[in-house]
Write a structure and sequence with these properties.
The complex is a heterodimer. Chain A is mainly α. Chain A is built from two helices and no strands. By secondary structure, chain B is mostly helical. In chain B, helix 1 packs antiparallel against helix 2 and helix 1 packs parallel to helix 4. The N terminus of chain B is likely disordered. The chains are: A mainly alpha, B mainly alpha.
Chain lengths: 104, 114
């Protein structure tokens, strides 16, 4: 989680620096009285880098995907209980043949 | 409240049953990713200076890239994490549109007008 968060913050910082550069560029254009057709090339590069970093952060920071299969290894609903001292197995059930294939 | 819905006679065929709690977690992850990227796309569109239809095209382009990224994150096998492909690709597509327009106008005003 930490690395994704840091990368996201870095991406946002790069984007805000690009915004500030564009503001300054527009101020320059106002002085020379030209039309604003698009941000300068280095700002565009900065925006692409910032977008790539933010995209990477957005895919890793919110969390992992969890498997929804009920019988995958990380979704075990049963496990050996901690109070196995109180469990006895010498009852009538031991005479039944095992029906399902149980995973341990 | 059990964390997985499972009946004992469905042990062999678990296609209609799945862990609903994990599915909700996955949907929340997608939602968060898409919302964050809508905001970033809005800020970007405002900085570049898109006006009109071009901005919305940019938003859909970013959302398509997000879909590809989410598919890659799911390892291109949606069956393991979702119940249908449509959830990964199209859920939350239009929900981020409002955030996009909000931050688009906000960034545009900030950079180009003031």
């Amino acid at each position: 989680m930490n690395l994704g968060f840091l990368i996201g913050v870095l991406g946002v910082l790069i984007l805000s620096h690009a915004a500030y550069s564009t503001i300054q560029y527009r101020g320059l254009l106002k002085i020379t009285e030209e039309e604003f057709s698009g941000p300068p090339m280095n700002v565009v590069l900065e925006l692409i880098v910032g977008l790539a970093l933010c995209m990477w952060a957005a895919l890793t920071f919110p969390g992992k995907f969890l498997s929804i299969h009920p019988d995958s290894d990380e979704n075990r609903a049963v496990s050996l209980p901690d109070n196995s001292d109180f469990m006895i197995f010498n009852h009538r059930g031991r005479l039944f043949p095992p029906e399902i294939d149980m995973k341990f | 409240m059990g964390s997985s819905e499972k009946r004992s006679k469905d042990v062999m065929s678990d296609i209609p049953t799945f862990s609903a709690e994990n599915l909700q977690n996955n949907l929340k992850v997608i939602q968060n990713s898409r919302t964050f990227l809508s905001i970033i796309a809005g800020v970007l569109a405002g900085i570049i200076g898109f006006t009109g239809l071009t901005g919305f095209v940019f938003y859909f382009v970013v959302m398509l890239i997000t879909s590809v990224g989410l598919m890659a994150k799911a390892g291109f096998s949606a069956d393991l994490y979702f119940d249908s492909w449509n959830r990964v690709l199209f859920d939350g597509f239009l929900g981020g549109l409002m955030s996009f327009v909000l931050f688009w106008t906000f960034a545009y005003d900030l950079v180009h007008i003031f």
